[in-house]
Write a structure and sequence with these properties.
This protein is of the alpha+beta class. It has 23 helices and 26 strands. Bound molecules: ligand ME8. The site of ligand ME8 has 20 residues, from helix 1, helix 8 and strand 11.
Length: 658
C-alpha cells in the first residue's frame, strides 16, 4: 500500500525583525504535528520559510542603509537568524522557502497572470486605508475606531491605480466552506470570520501596488508589484512545484495540505487563500488551524513594544526540549496564553524534573542497584496481578489511542495531559509497591520486585514514544536508559504492553531534567537578556558599583560648569589636550585631558562643560592639571567611546552641580 502523504506548513515569517517566542511557539507546534505524523508512519512534507517582500522591509532596509535583499539575508541566514533558530529548536522542516527565491517569484507571476486571464483580476482605482505594519488594506467600515482592526495602529489614506481580485464572487463558496465543512478550526474562528467578514459582504481585494518596488513585479504591467499576501500565500503551492520546475510534488499527491497559522492571519488563510485556489481551479487546503497568541503582561509581543522574549536565550538556558515541551504543555493550542519565565521554570520542575525525570531515574537506579542493569527473564508477567498492576497496565496500554485522538484534533496540550496521567500513575505505583522494602528480602521478593520494575520501564517506554514529537533528543536518552531498541520505539509498539524485552540492558544515565533553582535562574536570565541587548546594540556598559558612598563624602566633590576659553594639543602627546577654562572665579583654570582620540581642540573652544575642580593638582607631560573634565564612557563594538558632558550654554561658568 502507498504510504499516506501528509503536508503541513507554518506561516512564512516576516524577516523584518528577529523572531521571538511567539513565532517559535507556532513553529514548534507545527514541528510536533509533523513529527507525530512521521511517527504514525506517514510520508511527511513540512514546509516553513520567510515572507520577504513588502513596503515594511523596503523601509527598514533603507533605514539600515542596505538593499532589501541584504537586509533580509542577514535576518534569515545571518548569525542567530531564522534558519539558525529553527536548527537550534530542532525543527524538522523538509523544505524552507524564501519568497525572494527565483522559482517562487516566477510562479507568483504565473499565478497572477492566470487569475488575470480567467477574469478574476481586473484594473481599477484603489481608495481606502492602508496599515503599513500589517501590509493590509481596509475599507472604512472595517476599521475599528478609525484604526487597523488587526493591530490597532493608525492607517493611512491611499489612492492609486491597482489590480483587484474578485473576492466578492467567491463569497457564497467561502461561506459554505467555513460553515458546512470542518476546514477551519477551532470552530470559534469560523464564527469570527463569518461575523466580521462574510456577513458584512466580501469586497474585492486590492492585489497590486505602485507606490513601492520591493515585491514581485507584475510582468504584464511594469510599475505594479504583486500585493505581498498574494505573493506570500502562494508559497504553500510554489514550494511543491506549482507553476515552476524546481519541484515536482504538487501533482504527486502532496496537495492539499494543512496550514497552521496564528489567529490574526486566519482571515488571509480561510477567505483569501481558498478563494485564490478556487479561482485557479485547485483544491483548497484540507485544514486551516488558527492558534492563539502568547501574550506578555496581557498584550501581544512585538518588537515595537519592546516586550519580546528571545527564544535563543531561553533555549540556551533551559534546553531546547524543555522549552519545546513547556510551549506545548502550558498553552491550549487554540487559545491565547500568558507567557512568563516563572511559569516556564515551574513547568520544568513539576512535570519534567519531578514527574518524568524522577520516574526514569528512580526506575533505572533500582534496576541497576537490585539487578545489575538487566531484569531477569520472566519478569514481564505475574501470576496474580494486583489491582494496581492492572490499573497501570490498562492506563498505559490505552494511552496511545487517547493521545492520537487529541493529536488528530490539534490538541497537543491535551495529548500531553494524557501522558502525564500515566507518568503520575506510575510514580504512585512506585509508592504502592515500595520496591526498597521488597529488596530487603531478594530471595523471597526478587521476582515481584523485578515485575514491578518491568512495569515501570514499560510505562516509561510508552510515554517516551509518545513524547518523541515534543522532545526528540531527551526521549532518545530515555530510550537508551531503559534499554528500548528500535523495535520498542515504534508507533505500533506504543499500544503493545510488553514490547520491551524483559532482559533489556537498563543503564542509569545522566539526569534527564535537572531541577532549576528559580531565583538563580531568574538572575541568570536577566544577565543573559542584558548581555544580548548590549551585544545587539554593540554597546557595552561598565557594571554599576554596588559599594555605597555616604552622602557627606559625595558632597565633598565640587563639580562646576566651565567654559572653554582655549584648547590645544600637548606637544609630543598623542592623547592629551590642554584646556584654559573660565570657572567663574575670574582666574583661568588649566585642565589636561586625554581625549584627543575623540575631539579636535578647535571644535571645543566655546563649549560649556562640567569639571570637578577640587582634585589635587597633577603634573602631566610637564603641565599642571587642576581638576578633571567629566565625560560619559562606554564601549561600542569593542571600542572605547567617550563623550564630554556638554551642558546648556545658558548656564553661567562656575554654577555648582548638586
Ligand atoms: O504573519 N504568539 O508573518 P509574521 C503566537 N508573513 N504566535 C505568534 C505571535 C505570538 N505572540 N506573534 C507572531 C506573517 N505569531 C506573514 C505570514 S503566511 C503565507 C504569511 C505568529 O512573522 C503569527 O500569528 O508576522 C503568525 O502565524 C506567525 O507567527 C508569523 O508571523
Amino acid at each position: 500500500m502507498d504510504q499516506k502523504k501528509f503536508y503541513i506548513t507554518t506561516p512564512i515569517y516576516y524577516p523584518s525583525d528577529k523572531l521571538h517566542i511567539g513565532h517559535t511557539y507556532c513553529t514548534v507546534a507545527t514541528d510536533v504535528l509533523a513529527r507525530y505524523h512521521r511517527l504514525l508512519g506517514e510520508d511527511v512534507m513540512f514546509l516553513t520559510g520567510t515572507d520577504e517582500h513588502g513596503q515594511k522591509i523596503e523601509d527598514k532596509a533603507k533605514e539600515a542603509g542596505v538593499t532589501p535583499k541584504e537586509f533580509v539575508d542577514r535576518i534569515v541566514e545571518g548569525p542567530r537568524g531564522v534558519v539558525d533558530l529553527w536548527k537550534l529548536m530542532n525543527i524538522s522542516n523538509d523544505r524552507f522557502i524564501r519568497t525572494t527565491d527565483g522559482y517562487h517569484v516566477q510562479s507568483v507571476q504565473r499565478i497572477f497572470k492566470k487569475l488575470h486571464e480567467n477574469g478574476d483580476i481586473y484594473k481599477g482605482t484603489y481608495k481606502g486605508k492602508y496599515c503599513k505594519p500589517c501590509e493590509s488594506f481596509w475599507t472604512e467600515s472595517q476599521l475599528v475606531d478609525g484604526k487597523c482592526p488587526d493591530c490597532g495602529r493608525e492607517v493611512q489614506a491611499a489612492e492609486e491605480e491597482a489590480y483587484f481580485f474578485r473576492l466578492s464572487k467567491y463569497a457564497g463558496r467561502i461561506r459554505d466552506l467555513l460553515e458546512n465543512t470542518d476546514f477551519l478550526e477551532p470552530r470559534s474562528r469560523v464564527h469570527e470570520m463569518v461575523r466580521n467578514f462574510i456577513d458584512p459582504g466580501l469586497e474585492d481585494l486590492c492585489v497590486s501596488r505602485t507606490s513601492f518596488s520591493w515585491g514581485v513585479p507584475v510582468d504584464f504591467d511594469p510599475g505594479h508589484v504583486v500585493y505581498v499576501w498574494v505573493d506570500a500565500l502562494s508559497n504553500y503551492i510554489t514550494a511543491l512545484g506549482y507553476e515552476n520546475d524546481r519541484y515536482h510534488d504538487y501533482e504527486q499527491g502532496w496537495w492539499p495540505g494543512v496550514n497552521i497559522v496564528g489567529k490574526e492571519i486566519v482571515r488571509f488563510h480561510s477567505i483569501i487563500w481558498p478563494a485564490m485556489l478556487m479561482s485557479l481551479g485547485e483544491p483548497v487546503p484540507k485544514k486551516c488551524f488558527g492558534h492563539g497568541w502568547l501574550l506578555l503582561d496581557g498584550g501581544k509581543m512585538s518588537k515595537s513594544k519592546g516586550n519580546v522574549v528571545d527564544p535563543y536565550i531561553l533555549a540556551e538556558q533551559f534546553g531546547v526540549d524543555a522549552l519545546r515541551f513547556f510551549l506545548m504543555r502550558t498553552f491550549p493550542f487554540g487559545s491565547d496564553g500568558n507567557f512568563s519565565n516563572e511559569l516556564l521554570i515551574q513547568t520544568i520542575n513539576t512535570d519534567l524534573a519531578n514527574d518524568l525525570g524522577n520516574l526514569v531515574s528512580r526506575t533505572t537506579a533500582m534496576a541497576g542497584k537490585y539487578f545489575g542493569n538487566a531484569l531477569p527473564a520472566g519478569c514481564g508477567t505475574w501470576k496474580e496481578p494486583l489491582s494496581f498492576d492492572k490499573e497501570l497496565q490498562e492506563l498505559a496500554g490505552g494511552l496511545r489511542d487517547r493521545y492520537a485522538a487529541e493529536m488528530d484534533h490539534f490538541a497537543p496540550h491535551k495529548a500531553l495531559e494524557e501522558i502525564f496521567k500515566v507518568i503520575q500513575r506510575a510514580n504512585k505505583y512506585i509508592d504502592e509497591n515500595t520496591p526498597w522494602a521488597l529488596a530487603k528480602d531478594m530471595e523471597q521478593n526478587g521476582p515481584r520486585l523485578a515485575h514491578v520494575l518491568y512495569n515501570l520501564l514499560e510505562a516509561a517506554r510508552i510515554c517516551g514514544i509518545l513524547l518523541t514529537p515534543f522532545m526528540p533528543e531527551s526521549t532518545e536518552k530515555l530510550f537508551a536508559q531503559i534499554g528500548a531498541g528500535e523495535e520498542a520505539r515504534t508507533w505500533d509498539s506504543a499500544a503493545r504492553w510488553g514490547a520491551l524485552p524483559e532482559t533489556a540492558a537498563v543503564l542509569k544515565g545522566e539526569n534527564l531534567f535537572p531541577r532549576v533553582d528559580m531565583d538563580k535562574a531568574m538572575e541568570e536570565l536577566e544577565a543573559a537578556v542584558e548581555a544580548a541587548r548590549q551585544a545587539e546594540s554593540g554597546v557595552e556598559l561598565e557594571p554599576q558599583l554596588t559599594e555605597k558612598v555616604d552622602f557627606d563624602t559625595f558632597c565633598k566633590s565640587d563639580f562646576r560648569v566651565v567654559k572653554v576659553k582655549a584648547c590645544e594639543a600637548v606637544k609630543k602627546s598623542e592623547k592629551l589636550l590642554k584646556f584654559i577654562l573660565d570657572d567663574g572665579t575670574g582666574v583661568d583654570r588649566q585642565i589636561l585631558s586625554g581625549i584627543h582620540k575623540w575631539y579636535e581642540p578647535e571644535d571645543l573652544v566655546g563649549k560649556t562643560l562640567v569639571a570637578i575642580v577640587n582634585l589635587p593638582p597633577r603634573k602631566m607631560m610637564g603641565h599642571e592639571s587642576n581638576g578633571m573634565l567629566i565625560s560619559a564612557v562606554h564601549k561600542e563594538k569593542g571600542e572605547e567611546a567617550l563623550h564630554l558632558l556638554m551642558v546648556d550654554d545658558a548656564i553661567p561658568a562656575g554654577a555648582k552641580l548638586c
